[in-house]
Amino acid sequence: MNIHPQIEKVLERKAGQILSLAKRIHANPEIGFEERKACRWQVELLKKWDFRVQCPFVGVSTAYKAIRGRGKPVFCFMAEYDALPEIGHACGHNLICSAAIGAGVALAEVLQKEKITGSVVVMGTPAEESKGGKVIMVKRGALRGIDAVIMAHPAAKTSPDAGSNAICRYDVTFKVKAAHAAGDPPEGYSALDAVILFFQGINAWRQFLPESSRVHGIILEGGVMPNIIPEQASCRFYLRSPDDAYLVKMSNRFKQIAAGAAMMTGTKFKISPALEAYKARLPNKYLNEAYLETARQLGMNPVIPEHPERGSSDFGDVSQKVPGAHVYFDIAGKKRDLPAHSIAFREAAGSEYGLQQMLRAANAMAQVGYRYFTDADFQRKVHEEFKRQMGKR
To answer: In the chain, which end has fewer C-beta atoms inside a 10 angstrom radius, N or C?
Structure first.
């Protein structure tokens, strides 16, 4: 796979505007479903570059779909731009959307110049951070007509998509009759005791889980004062597995443990879903390999992860609807210990090195898109692999 020089030239011409976008969004962080400035700035730039834009999109006010070109195939670059509470763009989503827009315009201009039929889409997907913007959009038909998707996420290393865990999240509330802790303890039971026993049950269960699965929680409510036996206590747990079917089994066991804690403490309990559940991410082998090959040629020094990610992403739902890859690009440089969701990561997402790496990622994604449009065998393999993956499930 050779690097198409015209894609690089388009990116060189547009680099100033792409970098300005990334810097503005980084300096103005907005949390999920509130990304009004970020969304508006992207839409304005895409319209300036002759994309036809729908915004709001599928009923989500800070989502958009931008199209340039006509007909099939339809290749999509996916953008994220929400920030984290308090620490801003500590996941680098300002770079994700800028890379997507850069890749989109570079590929669209080359296809137009070479009179190649097809459509380039840049899709803005808000609220990735725990709120599941893509899950909501997929349910509402956002991927209708899309043939394949790629997005690039900043990280400590450049790498292909190794997959990620499915996740479901639950709030568990225990309730019981209140009593004075010193004067009338026989008249009540403790909802807090139920929560504590529930945590102990979860801890005992952990040793029987596969290494790839995860369960972790916090106490949300544990009482008001020490001299009042708590009549209500609650906690929140996340359950994760790389296998969607196994996650269902985990959920069932989780509910049994909650029932046991309630029985031991004479309490009533309620389990409610918290936030959106995400499906496991299924990386497309051929989109992955094409990105890896291109990243090597661009001097991005990619590495192969030792195992799939243990975290979760709403891109999982996308990857089970159309062929997709959620690839990574290095913004750490020599700082290989750069943790995501940290102040250090936020600074890297606004650094000169991080911004230049974002442009390289845009180049790499656009090169993959060009191959999808011009290499019929590659396109066929992408779709055959997706059918094989979904058939196994």
So the answer is: C
- Contact 354/154 with Cβ under 8 angstroms? yes
Burial annotation 39-70 (CB, 10 A radius, 16+ → b, else e):
bebbbebbeebebebebebbebebbbbbbbbe
Q: Which residue has the tokens 């936020």?
A: 346
* Gap between the Cα atoms of 60 and 308, Å rounded: 31
Per-residue pLDDT tens over the stretch 128-144: 998 999 999 999 999 99
Q: Which residues pair with 328 in a beta bridge?
A: 153, 159
Strand 232-241 versus strand 166-175 pairing type: antiparallel
Q: Is 114 helix (H, G, I), strand (E, B) or coil?
A: coil
CA 117 remoteness from chain centre? 30
Q: Going by C-beta distance under 8 Å and a sequence separation of 6 or more, which residues neighbour residue 211?
A: none
pLDDT tens per residue across span 349-372: 999 999 999 999 999 999 999 999
pLDDT of 180 > 60? The answer is no
Tokens of 82: 């929400």
- Confidence category of residue 334, pLDDT binned at 50, 70, 90: confident
**25's tokens:** 């969004």
Cα–Cα distance, 53 to 55 (Å, whole number) = 6
